[in-house]
User: Which sequence fits this backbone?
């Protein structure tokens, strides 16, 4: 909406945004540098510092070598477990949230406010509080120690967030659009597919980012409701600092952290292209 | 539900209504089943927790009735008293600041700047890292002997002090800093999604009318962000209330018990201390605090909407 | 356990009911076990134990639960609620008695008697593993939590040779170090357990009898007694010598400064030796000494890891439990375990003169023997050996706040400690 010429105000904008970005990056730089230092070096110098010897082996170690119990395969298999839970749970909960958000905000039905109120309360229930009830639910459904059980938990709990995001985004869409579609005889699904979805990419990306990162980084349920070889990557990350008579393996752990964060970072970068203005133009008229 | 049927069908027969309902069955299933399952889990889990808070449960949930004993026990601990004060200090500051910073970043990124994709990822990446690990890294950065203070001291400003982490009265602000860093980027993404959903034609029209950028933001864009702002505040509020891993890794609730938060108290009593009944009582108290914030807001919204409807 | 093996388990149950008891002896031993020992030397030790189990013809199904002890307990609770507890799980201290009330355990009396194990274990320790007089759990290794680590460089700076044996000597040495330019005579971590550990080392060192009455038996008079107050007063001195920067830090954060002589002494568990060596420091960088004891006789604050055995109707698992119990009591197994982790064996009759042991371990084992003989071996509060977790945590709240907040006086701390015990009882 403004032309991109070099003006003092634009210089200021660039300077500000990159300055903040630099501050934001500091903890990442610490993690990155530590991922290239050996555990001994970290213990013998300082927790924050420049690598004296570049310990590239940390990455190979983190990816495929370090041992958890008898299994010496790094975080590789645990990454797969996390993906098997995170990807389906993210897709299902995001889509369900979009549909529910649309139904509540634009399609409207009796009791929509009430049910939305209850679901919105759900985001405030701390995970710790839900741990025991979920244990009982999983037992009764015969899903104890299964990845399916975890996917189910994340879909149901995630609905609160995804519905909230989508519903509040959709309330900005004029009601007239839906009325017009209804008069044209479009049903629920057609309206959703033809009118709402084309308007949705930014919020779907935001919702998917939220779901993906939170499920991927979730530890409490992952470690309680799975066993041994099914555990998620967060459990493998923690294992590296837990031994009593060892120095914490910060080097390998931080390398593992960076590897484990890659899928999420890719989602951010890849999703970026859907962050464009003016989606409404064209699809409306 | 069948009331949602199109208008002008006063003469419908039962059969027609039935076939209509059948035709719309898939839609009802898709709308209602997920909503009801989710709502049911929230209601039953909450009711269950309330029930447990009145039982003598220790290592396992058991039945029985102890009245308000668990509540009295929790309320008399210094941990809960500290956590109660902290949640208002931390929650209030964090929600306002992170929303403000998120909006600021979103507006900056909305200036058609180059490298938006990279910058957006930079502001979002804290979400991608395991909280347990970033909490540890922040505990080093905020440690006067290791991090920021030492760095500035080494640069030559030797009297510079930044030791909030060790000060029982200021340690809570270190959690605010780390929490803003962790989640302001998400507020930015939500705001950006909202900014980008503003109708491009509307902006063009405003520009043609000669409105300047500040005016466009104030008059057109920011007002349209209202629902997004609600989302941001609600999400940050939930972040504040459920913050757990970050604090455990950053301060461990310390120095002493100075940075206790309700979520830590809940977990601590339920699982670490083997007092499930007391932990449940803490959880219920936590939800009561939340309701004490939300109910006035809902009432206000209700009055507002009535006023609009009557106007 | 997966759904599959659960079905298998049900099949196993049917087998037991149908078959005569002789079939039990012939079942192939299998063990489902959960522990928090996932990686590092802990992981290596339990993996080696598993290898032995397999060598004896068993099937070893170990599921480590990485993270805090609480995470492992959550896992155990979830398994019990699901009606499917592991055959064996890591659990320690008074929690053994507490948990054995919520799910049926496997009695081990016969196996323990057959091995003649009881007389080889310190009596206070044995008691923890036999709630209501029956063995249901077995300890595997012991750590001392009140060892004194002295920085060689700091000792040189203070021109000191001898490790202090009483708290008065300890204080004198700290003052000397301070005067000689050691920035912080006491170095340590700042976690809750670290603070608790300093308190118990001081308290037990001042009077093991008072410590036993107050911290272990929760005697109200002892809790409010002069020794408790003296312990807090000594802890205040120690807090003053510490670097406040250790707040919430793992003690390994400051190892470099300890070795460099910026920090003088650490009150740490015996495991700190392994941590120092694993971090690449040398044995002559530091001195290990017993924690100071005012009555001159060695005091040992004891921390032990153990396995509890859960009842199972499956013949394979029952056979596995028997094999596991026998292995855990075996001196050779305990030797291998402790040599990997840096602890000492539970059995007081293991010879530590061999080359696989370090001087630190030999010292610890001797201390334990002498302390048991002098009735001065007590159970660690900070490591959940003296009390159930709820009471421990309530007491540590008071201690950690006392360490971090100089405005709290020893008198107030004594009051608060007694109150914390009361409300958490």
Assistant:
């Amino acid at each position: 909406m403004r032309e991109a010429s070099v003006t003092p105000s634009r210089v200021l904008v660039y300077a500000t945004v990159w300055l903040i970005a630099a501050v934001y990056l500091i903890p990442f730089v610490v993690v990155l540098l530590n991922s290239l230092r050996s555990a001994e070096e970290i213990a013998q110098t300082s927790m924050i510092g420049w690598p004296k010897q570049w310990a590239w082996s940390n990455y190979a170690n983190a990816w495929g070598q370090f041992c958890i119990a008898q299994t010496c395969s790094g975080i590789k298999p645990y990454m797969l477990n996390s993906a098997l839970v995170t990807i389906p749970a993210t897709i299902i909960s995001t889509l369900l949230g979009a549909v529910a958000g649309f139904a509540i905000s634009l399609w409207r039905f009796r009791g929509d406010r009430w049910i939305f109120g209850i679901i919105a309360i759900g985001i405030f229930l701390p995970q710790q509080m839900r741990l025991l009830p979920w244990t009982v639910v999983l037992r009764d459904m015969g899903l104890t120690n299964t990845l399916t059980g975890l996917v189910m938990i994340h879909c149901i709990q995630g609905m609160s967030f995804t519905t909230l995001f989508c519903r509040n985004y959709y309330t900005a869409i004029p009601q007239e659009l839906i009325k017009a579609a209804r008069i044209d005889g479009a049903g629920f699904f057609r309206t959703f597919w033809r009118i709402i979805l084309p308007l949705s990419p930014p919020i779907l990306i935001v919702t998917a980012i939220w779901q993906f990162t939170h499920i991927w980084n979730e530890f409490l349920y992952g470690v309680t409701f799975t066993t041994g070889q099914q555990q998620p990557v967060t459990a493998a990350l923690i294992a590296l600092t837990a031994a009593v008579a060892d120095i914490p393996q910060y080097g390998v752990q931080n390398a593992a952290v960076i590897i484990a964060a890659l899928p999420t970072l890719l989602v951010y970068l890849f999703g970026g292209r859907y962050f464009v203005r003016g989606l409404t133009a064209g699809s409306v008229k | 539900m069948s009331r949602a049927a199109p208008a002008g069908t006063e003469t419908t027969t039962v059969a027609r209504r039935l076939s209509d309902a059948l035709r719309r069955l898939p839609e009802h299933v898709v709308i209602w089943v997920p909503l009801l399952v989710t709502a049911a889990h929230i209601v039953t889990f909450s009711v269950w927790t309330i029930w447990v808070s009145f039982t003598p449960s220790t290592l396992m949930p058991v039945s029985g009735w102890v009245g308000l004993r668990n509540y009295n026990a929790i309320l008399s601990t210094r941990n809960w008293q500290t956590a109660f004060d902290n949640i208002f200090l931390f929650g209030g500051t964090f929600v306002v600041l992170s929303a403000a910073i998120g909006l600021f970043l979103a507006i900056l990124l909305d200036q058609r700047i180059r490298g938006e994709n990279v910058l957006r990822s930079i502001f979002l990446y804290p979400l991608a890292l395991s909280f347990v690990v970033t909490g540890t890294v922040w505990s080093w950065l905020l440690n006067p002997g290791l991090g920021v203070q030492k760095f500035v001291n080494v640069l030559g400003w030797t009297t510079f002090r930044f030791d909030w982490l060790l000060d029982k009265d200021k340690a809570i602000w270190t959690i605010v800093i780390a929490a803003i860093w962790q989640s302001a980027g998400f507020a930015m993404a939500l705001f950006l999604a909202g900014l980008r959903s503003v109708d491009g034609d509307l902006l063009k029209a405003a520009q043609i009318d000669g409105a300047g950028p500040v005016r466009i933001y104030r008059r057109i864009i920011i007002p349209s962000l209202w629902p997004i702002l609600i989302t941001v505040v609600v999400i940050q509020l939930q972040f504040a209330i459920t913050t757990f891993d970050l604090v455990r890794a950053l301060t461990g609730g310390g120095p002493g018990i100075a940075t206790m938060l309700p979520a830590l108290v809940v977990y601590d009593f339920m699982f670490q201390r083997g007092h499930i009944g007391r932990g449940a009582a803490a959880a219920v108290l936590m939800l009561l605090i939340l309701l004490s914030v939300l109910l006035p807001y809902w009432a206000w919204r209700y009055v507002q909407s009535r006023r609009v409807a009557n106007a | 356990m997966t759904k599959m093996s659960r079905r298998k388990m049900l099949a196993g149950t049917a087998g037991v009911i149908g078959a005569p008891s002789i079939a039990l002896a012939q079942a192939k031993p299998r063990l489902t076990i959960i522990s928090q020992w996932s990686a590092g030397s802990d992981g290596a030790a339990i993996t080696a134990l598993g290898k032995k189990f397999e060598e004896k013809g068993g099937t070893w199904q170990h599921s480590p639960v990485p993270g805090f002890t609480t995470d492992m307990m959550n896992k155990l609770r979830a398994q019990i609620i699901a009606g499917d507890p592991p055959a064996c799980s890591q659990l320690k201290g008074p929690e053994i008695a507490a948990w054995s009330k919520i799910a049926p355990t496997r009695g081990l009396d016969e196996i323990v008697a057959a091995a003649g194990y009881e007389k080889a274990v310190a009596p206070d320790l044995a008691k923890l593993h036999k709630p209501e007089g029956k063995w249901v759990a077995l300890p595997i290794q012991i750590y001392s939590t009140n060892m004194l680590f002295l920085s060689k460089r700091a000792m040189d700076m203070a021109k000191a040779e001898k490790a202090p044996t009483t708290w008065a000597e300890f204080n004198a040495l700290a003052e000397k170090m301070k005067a000689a330019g050691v920035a912080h005579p006491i170095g340590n971590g700042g976690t809750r357990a670290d603070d608790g550990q300093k308190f118990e080392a001081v308290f037990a060192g001042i009077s093991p009898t008072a410590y036993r009455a107050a911290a272990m038996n929760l005697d109200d008079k002892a809790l409010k007694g002069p020794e408790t107050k003296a312990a807090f007063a000594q802890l205040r001195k120690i807090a003053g010598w510490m670097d406040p920067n250790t707040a919430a830090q793992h003690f390994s954060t400051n190892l470099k400064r300890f070795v460099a002589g910026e920090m003088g002494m650490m009150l740490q568990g015996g495991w700190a030796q392994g941590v120092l060596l694993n971090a690449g420091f040398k044995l002559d960088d530091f001195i290990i000494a017993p924690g100071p004891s005012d009555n001159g006789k060695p005091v040992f604050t004891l921390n032990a890891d153990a396995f509890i055995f859960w009842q199972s109707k499956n013949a394979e698992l029952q056979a596995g439990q028997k094999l596991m119990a026998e292995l855990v009591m075996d001196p050779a197994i305990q030797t291998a375990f402790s040599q990997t982790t840096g602890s000492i064996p539970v059995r007081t009759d293991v010879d530590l003169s061999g080359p696989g042991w370090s001087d630190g371990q030999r010292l610890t084992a001797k201390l334990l023997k002498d302390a048991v003989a002098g009735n001065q071996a007590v159970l660690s509060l900070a490591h959940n050996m003296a009390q159930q977790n709820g009471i421990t945590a309530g007491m540590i709240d008071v201690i950690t706040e006392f360490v971090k907040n100089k405005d709290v006086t020893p008198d107030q701390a004594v009051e608060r400690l007694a109150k914390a015990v009361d409300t958490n009882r």
User: Anything to note?
Assistant: DSSP finds 14 helices and no strands in chain B.
